[in-house]
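Standup notes
- DV: blocked on the single-chain target, sequence here:
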Amino acid sequence: MIEDQKVSEFLNDVALVSSNQLDIIKSIRRLFNKASRELTDEIKYGGLVFVKSGSLVGGIFPYKQHISIEFSNGVNLADPSGLLEGKGKRRRHLKIYDMKDIKEKNADFYIKQAVNE
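- DV (later): unblocked, structure below
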């Protein structure tokens, strides 16, 4: 995945606010990239989004107290632990407060599903 200028600026902006959030975002981004080589990323809607074959798969959005991993078709994802949040028609998300939440909330499980849906 080639990082474009807007993605670099986004990551630099996050770093200025919180190095901890930057580390979390980079870790989550690696999970998306590992799940599919077909993904491209771009900045949209205030976050880092991932696109596969022209369709938005999901994204990473920083908030003051947490990072949100959004899944565009999250309603279709298996959620045996009931960790996905959201009540919209399609979108669901995981709230990540610190690095350990990535593993504890099994982000990789949801990302792999979303990317390979």
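- Follow-up: The chain is about 40% helix and 25% strand.
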